[in-house]
Specification:
Strand content: 35-45%
Distance between the termini: 49 Å
Number of strands: 53
CATH superfamily of the largest domain: Carboxypeptidase-like, regulatory domain
Radius of gyration: 30 Å
Oligomer: single chain
Helix content: under 10%
Mean pLDDT: 91
Number of helices: 1
Length: 602
């Protein structure tokens, strides 16, 4: 069930309960968010249903208005409540005057928020090519022409038909169809977009809307004899959309953005290898194709014949290992050769197709994530470079799967020596990932102890990462930055890596233009080391108009603060327009540095 019908049912149920004299349960915390809901056009009270969701706990509370349009949501005392109101015949609205979750004002409880609901309406259209053929699956957003905020989104169906529910009023319409990015009503750009008025008493009917022709790279794929090669899919490296797979006659087409790009040919045909337009197996040697806006650029290609690899994954005692998953790389590089094959079955056998007829290395990953390189080595530089021949099968001797290595240790507070529980010890640090993303990771227990198992290779660098950002990150070797980490040697017995965490530094800043006014829009803010790594957790400048910024969990090392507008891509740094001109900041453990950051004049 979609959110809108579900909310309508909840609203009806709550209103029915109110009519029957049913009362909501009492809350121990009597804090509440209160207000009134009215019609934006007439000011008359509206019987509506509201919900409030806490971003910290995801607790949700609901209520409905009385006959005077008044409501009281029993939201527990605190910040970060997202409140929405809905009523029959009106567009769903978030506090205050917003139409999507991300743009909604975050409210405090106790607090107040009034809603002036706008009548719901719709935009109807059918997207077509110049030939009249439908453009399927176009994605459309309606944008407020004054605030630039998205007020509704929906996709067209497979026949190009759009039914976009939206609040009545003025909107601009932005369409994405494949690689096409079009604002309706002008020359396709945002600057020339038409402002449409969506009526409150019926849908805005746009009829057939012809989109500009796509920008494509097209061609025919053949083997060395000129015979067509089907089931090879073209994928643009940059600015592409989806893939264009060759048909029975070898013909393909892939949508791209105008300009220079490279196109990879990913083979789903077991008799042919993946390659790049231009005939190379490697990206570095691939041809650069210049795509022309709204035109087809033709590039034909001879696709190389593939080899096959057969092997078996076994344990140290020679017994088969089930679930070992293969990856083939070009030589001793990290470039995936895109061979096809399943993980080993109960008998340990592995069969790979679409293997390029050039030097390759083979890795097998165990079900527990331990990597073994054929013929049974821990690192790729010790792997055998296989030399498969086109049209032939190369049989690799049984690959004896390695058992994982381990690192154990303890994490303590550097000042007190007390254990620090709940800290992640991991191979990857990235505050904007929201947590360890990829690699190996484990949290410390109540005594600050951890054990990280199933590690591959001969050495590894680890980081102790407090995701509460009360502490700064610490890498093996007592390094405050990733670039200074000292690798831990991995052997047959567990290695030991202890960490002593320093309290994180804090930057508390006020950010404005030169005249003291807030920056335009929302800004993403990060603190970078000289080697380009981001550190700490930033509050960012959000929503638009925010001037207060806090970055927590910073290491005791020189950092540069970068501010970026994600919409325009505009960037400036604290102290200058670029990284070279930026003023480094260094915050001692546990201290707060107060800054005033001014956006440089354009």
């Amino acid at each position: 069930m979609s959110p809108r019908p579900a909310r309508a049912l909840l609203c009806a149920a709550l209103l029915a309960g109110s009519a029957l004299g049913v009362t909501a349960p009492a809350f121990a915390d009597d804090a509440a968010i209160t207000g009134h809901v009215t019609d934006a056009a007439t000011g008359a009270p509206v019987q509506a249903c509201l919900s409030a969701t806490s971003e910290s706990t995801w607790e949700t509370v609901d209520t409905c208005t009385d006959e005077a349009g008044a409501y009281s949501l029993p939201a527990g005392a605190g910040d970060g409540w997202v409140v929405q109101a809905s009523a029959d015949g009106y567009a769903l609205e978030y506090a205050r005057g917003h139409y999507d979750w991300n743009s909604a004002d975050r409210l405090s409880s106790p607090g107040t928020a009034d809603f002036a609901l706008v009548r719901a309406s719709a935009v109807h259209a059918t997207f077509r090519e110049a030939s009249g053929a439908p453009v399927p699956w176009a994605w459309v957003e309606a944008v407020d022409p004054v605030t630039g905020e998205t007020v509704a989104t929906n996709g067209a169906d497979d026949q190009g038909v759009l039914d976009l529910s939206v609040r009545a009023g003025r909107v601009e319409l932005h369409v994405e169809a494949g690689a096409r990015d079009v604002w309706l009503g002008g020359d396709g750009t945002r600057a020339q977009a038409q402002v449409y008025t969506v009526p409150a008493d019926g849908p805005l009917e746009l009829g057939d809307v012809a989109l500009p022709a796509p920008t494509r790279i097209v061609g025919r794929l053949t083997d060395a004899t000129g015979a067509p090669v089907p089931d090879v899919c073209a994928q643009a490296l940059a600015g592409g959309w989806g893939e264009g797979c060759s048909d029975a006659d070898g013909r393909y087409a892939v949508e791209v953005n105008p300009g220079a790009t490279q196109v990879q040919l990913y083979s789903r045909n077991p008799d042919f290898a993946s390659s790049w337009l231009g005939g190379s197996y490697t990206k570095a040697s691939a041809a650069t194709i210049t795509a022309v806006a709204h035109q087809d650029v033709t590039v034909d290609q001879v696709v190389p014949r593939a080899a096959r690899i057969a092997t078996r994954a076994v344990a140290a005692d020679g017994s088969p290992v089930e679930g070992a998953c293969p990856t083939v790389y070009l030589g001793r590089t990290t470039e995936n050769a895109l061979a096809s094959g399943d993980c080993s079955g109960p008998d340990g056998t592995i069969s790979l197709t679409s293997v390029p007829a050039t030097g390759v290395t083979l890795s097998l990953t165990s079900p527990r994530g331990v990597i073994t390189w054929a013929p049974g080595r821990a690192v790729q530089r010790h792997a055998t470079v296989l030399q498969p021949a086109a049209g032939a099968t190369i049989t690799v001797p049984d690959v004896r799967m390695l058992t994982g290595r381990s690192v154990v240790g303890r994490v303590v507070d550097a000042a007190t020596g007390a254990p620090v529980p709940g800290v992640w010890v991991t191979t990857a640090y990235g505050p904007r990932m929201g947590g360890p993303d990829g690699g190996h990771a484990v949290q410390t227990d109540a005594n600050g102890q951890y054990e990280l198992d199933d590690l591959s290779g001969n050495s590894i660098s680890l980081v102790a990462w407090d995701m509460g950002y009360d502490y700064a990150p610490d890498w093996t070797g007592d390094a405050p930055l990733e670039s200074r980490a000292v690798a831990v040697h991995l052997g047959a017995t567990p290695a030991t890596a202890d960490f002593a965490l320093q309290r994180g530094g804090v930057v508390d800043a006020t950010v404005t233009k030169a005249d003291g006014s807030p920056l335009d829009g929302s800004w993403v803010v990060d603190a970078y080391s000289k080697d380009g790594k981001a550190y700490g957790s930033s509050s960012d400048l959000y929503p638009a108009g925010d001037t207060s910024l806090t970055i927590r969990g910073l290491p005791d090392a020189p950092l540069r603060i970068r501010l970026q507008d994600p919409e325009s891509g505009q960037v400036f740094w604290y102290g200058g327009k670029d990284a070279e001109a930026a003023t480094p900041v260094k915050v001692k453990p546990g201290q707060t540095l107060h800054l005033t950051i001014t956006q440089p004049a354009s």
